[in-house]
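[09:14] KT: can someone run the structure on this one? pasting the chain below
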Amino acid sequence: MKKGIKTTLSLVLLICLVIGGILVYNNFFKDDATAVSSEVEKIMQEYNIDNDKYSKVLEYVLLNNIYNEEYLDQYADIEYVDIDNFASILTTFLPKGYSGKEINYITKLSDKNVDKLSNIDYVDISKYYNISNFDVDKIDRYNTYYENNDYTYDDVVTYVNIGMDLPVYTDTIEVSDPDSLLVLVNKYHYLPDGYEPDDLGYVPGAYGNNVPMRDVIVEPFKELQAAALEEIDVEFMPTTAYRGYSFQSTLYNRYVSEDGVEAADTYSARPGYSEHQTGLSIDLRNTALSSDIRLTDDNYEWLSNNAYRFGFIIRFPEDKTYITGYQFENWHIRYVGKDAAKIIYEEDLTLEEYIDLYVTEY
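[09:31] RB: done, structure tokens below
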């Protein structure tokens, strides 16, 4: 008798647990998007839409009078996003032939990219999902560069954005913010005509001269000097920092006369394209070494692993010449500020890559 009661109680308890589990699931875990309001249900009936076709996006298009029967199946694949241009995205890109899953990517693009994409015919963007620095304007260049090189799509996007798919010194761009600590001056970007920093300071140089540089980097450089002297007993002295257009022109033309244009371009910037003209770059040498040696490997190892602490980076790293366009220079440092320098150091980036990944808005 007791055994029968015990079995019955166990069965009742099991039933209660099952029923309770169903209630909990329905109340807390089941997608409440399947709950169709009476208003939406009425509209669905008017359009002869079965209840199993319901989705949050279907509800949205019905209530906003932008429903199109042609895209009924696509609505189910689209994730509803509460953004101002959601309706515009649906009515613009579904007719262009984009699938529901592609719409999900488009909703994550910047307004700038959405506008660009809306003005062209359908293009396959599936390879560029989740690449934050993707630029719609460059999609043909991305595809071509990918086909011609052995890079990932992430790298392709960055390299094309930098301009690596184009010949140097062609279709160059004048920088709009020459006084910025993150100004990018290279073979694709040049300084305004006659530019000169208006805040030059001076630091004692390697040859007994006073070396001009932006005043904002004087103290950080002195801190770097002091740390090197204390930590590795090396005195880093500047040979040059700020170099005006005329100075750079004389220097570059001398190199061209000695080695030719092609060779000179690998180690010297053309006038107007030198970041030395910004006053943010410094060429160093260890004053204890003979005149034909700037830094030893040990000197460079310390510099490359510690410059970021003071807001400087190695501007032309050995393994990134294909990006910077210049030969490795272990003596050339560039000030970018501590925050940027830390990221560039920790992620092993060039300034070009950092600007593209962290500064430019796409």
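[09:33] KT: thanks! The chain has three domains: 2-30, 34-122, 173-359.
[09:34] RB: yep, looked fine to me
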